[in-house]
Write a structure and sequence with these properties.
2 copies of one chain form a homodimer. Chain A is of the alpha+beta class. Chain A has one domain: Glutamine Phosphoribosylpyrophosphate, subunit 1, domain 1 (4-Layer Sandwich). In chain A, a hairpin with a 2-residue loop joins strand 2 and strand 3. The first copy, chain A, is globular. At the A-B interface, strand 3 and helix 2 of A face strand 3 and helix 2 of B.
Chain lengths: 261, 261
């Protein structure tokens, strides 16, 4: 399995604190040593840092941890390989263009007997993972449903949420998907989220001894949501998502959620 | 204008030496201060480091310069903005998937009156540059010419070379394009290349006082081609490309070249 993390915020925010906690699980406090990656949005563009090395040993992870890149939308992933070898092509997140936007996807879980269901023709995978194929399949479905970009991008995300059960039927499918504005979390068994807003408090990481006082780092208007497979802090209340539930965030604010679809 | 660099090699090779020379031109020995980027291939996958900051001040550029990432195919770019603002979306190289491979593109020059000629429908730009639109147009033409991936990818690159004159007719179009195996260089007025092979010698950078002895860094079977807008070393013989000329490299070896098409 793997660990996922996303941030959705209404102001460009750095993820050094949360990323530091996640990266510890990449071979030190957790077994997820088969690569890691993180995608930061700046407007419609994004940049991805990834490495097939364990995050706790990666020079590039050290840079990302120490260098505060501010973004309203981030997706990060650390991998414990099941389908597909340990190599760059199989390292999440996966980023692909659609409708003149970058879409970024990361998956926790494992699918079985999926080749027949997940037929793709428009978006072809580069690596060998079930995850990248699932992403390509979702983009193919989106492109078929909306031949041009819908006026309201929320409808595209709600469409993805409505077809995600097809992927859940193939195994464990915890997913994060963003276009830099909206972030969709879809849960099979392993996703938590928290929205931080004023009055901000202190938070302490589970995986290291870092304690942060968000009041010193934020303004009263900031709204910052973190989504992760497992809570990253031990003194805050994280919402545990239910099987088949999705949550859609728009620049930090939850705008839609559901139970089993 | 901008500066371009590519490496094509038959064994994974680091580009620290050439990259160091190029990065000096990003605000120190040259005026190309409007961002930089570099894409490294590992098999069919690639990773890109980019920054809208000047390369000579960029923390990320420092990491790439000091951390030897070995690759058979690299494209790098430093930008002096003409079309499009200074932001991540307008920062080269541009990477897009086609036929289950990553294609990477960088451009030096400037096009005029191009909107009518460069109509795209399959690949839509994310940023505002003439360069990214030219890349999307080339990929659209490729997808139209070959509905599925050709058995011999060389034919795809020769097709791109054959239609590049349409872009040259719109202005200055010096281009680098790779799928990680083949690298195509197309020249309007500003491209040079050099192939290094045994017996290797010493080389000294123009833009810094770094001298390297390639004999200490290579084996006798290594073949490494560097392509750049301007020569990076001052004690070697670089081939200057002519207007309308292309050169196609396959893992370091030149496999095809032409005069004005």
């Amino acid at each position: 399995m793997c660990e996922l993390m996303a941030m959705s915020a209404n102001v460009p925010t750095d993820i050094c604190f949360s990323f530091a906690g996640l990266m510890e699980r990449g071979g030190r406090t957790g077994p997820h040593k088969d690569g890691w990656g993180v995608t930061f949005y700046e407007g419609k563009a994004c940049r991805t840092f990834k490495d097939p090395l364990p995050s706790c040993e990666s020079e590039i992870a050290r840079l990302v941890k120490d260098y505060p890149i501010k973004s309203c939308s981030v997706i990060a992933h650390i991998r414990q390989a099941n389908r597909g070898s340990v190599c760059l092509a199989n390292t999440h997140p996966f980023v692909r263009p659609l409708w003149g936007r970058n879409w970024t996807f990361a998956h926790n879980g494992q699918l079985s007997n999926y080749q027949e269901v997940l037929q793709v023709s428009i978006h072809e995978p580069i690596g060998e993972t079930d995850s990248e194929l699932a992403f390509c399949w979702l983009l193919d479905q989106l492109k078929r449903q909306f031949s041009v970009q819908p006026d309201d991008m929320k409808s595209a995300f709600l469409y993805v949420a409505s077809i995600a059960h097809t992927l859940k039927a193939l195994g464990i499918f915890n997913m994060l998907l963003t276009d830099g504005i909206y972030t969709l979390a879809y849960c099979t068994n392993n996703l938590h989220w928290i929205t931080r807003r004023a009055p901000f408090g202190k938070a302490s990481l589970i995986d290291s001894d870092w304690v942060i006082d968000f009041q010193e780092e934020t303004t009263e208007h900031d709204i910052v949501t973190i989504i992760a497979t497992q809570p990253l802090t031990d003194n805050e209340q994280w919402h545990k998502m239910q099987e088949g539930e999705f949550a859609l965030f728009h620049l930090g604010e939850k705008v839609e959620t559901s139970g089993e679809s």
